[in-house]
Structures are given as structure tokens and as C-alpha cells.
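Sequence, C-alpha cells quoted for completeness.
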Amino acid sequence: MLTTTPGIDPHRIGVLGIYAGGGYAVHTARMDHRIKAVGTVVPINIGASFRSFQPDGPAAALDALADARTEEARSGETTHVNWLPDTLEDATTVLSEIRGLVIAHDVHLREDFQAPGWLWIHERPPRSSRRRARVTAT
């Protein structure tokens, strides 16, 4: 999609990933050589993190995932698994077991952090005005 978007130089594509997106960005850049630059902020391997949340280990997490997919295929209903506690108080209670859970709860479940879109394409300003250009949050 980016390579066919007007104004995008397909030889100068970069990605920025934050938290789980950092892990995705690194993996994607390894697999897609059109990506020439990668930036990350606190990158994590979210799959490994989720699997470590299972008290019985990674194999149990993968078994639970397989069971959920099978049930979804049979019933047509999506299975939702809460990887994070429902309340900040619950997250604080188990913080001693899983580092960073309170921060993860705050980042991923706060309403003001929810983003309806995931890709923003900003046009580059003309060369003469680049120094004055400012990035604005959407």
C-alpha cells in the first residue's frame, strides 16, 4: 500500500513500533527488505510475553489458544481472553508476579489511549519549510 501511495518514496520506507509494535516492526523489517529504517520504543515480543502469563507455561498457553480457535470456528463467536486484569487495583495486586503489569494496564486499557486507526501518512513539507514543520498528534 505504501509503495503505491502518491508522495511516498518506495526506496525510503521506515517503520516505528512502540511496545508490542516494536517487536512487530523489527520482525517485519527482517522479512520485508523494502523497509530501510526501523525505530522502536520499548520493544517487546508480545507473543512470548502472553505465553509467559500462563501459569502452566508456554505449551499451556498455545494449547489454550488452539482450543479458543477451534471453539470460534465451531460457534462463530469470538473468544476473548483477558490477558490484563480488569481493574488497576487487580493489576497492582499481581504486580509482584508480572513486572510491568500496571503500566501495561494503563497503556492498553485507558480509553484516552485507544486509537481507532493505526496508520497515519503525513505528507512531507516542501524542502524550504522542513525546518519549521512540526509533527502534530491526530
Q: What stands out?
A: Helices lie at 20-31, 46-52, 58-75, 88-93, 101-109. The first strand starts at residue 13 and ends at 18. The CA atoms of residues 50 and 83 lie 7 Å apart.
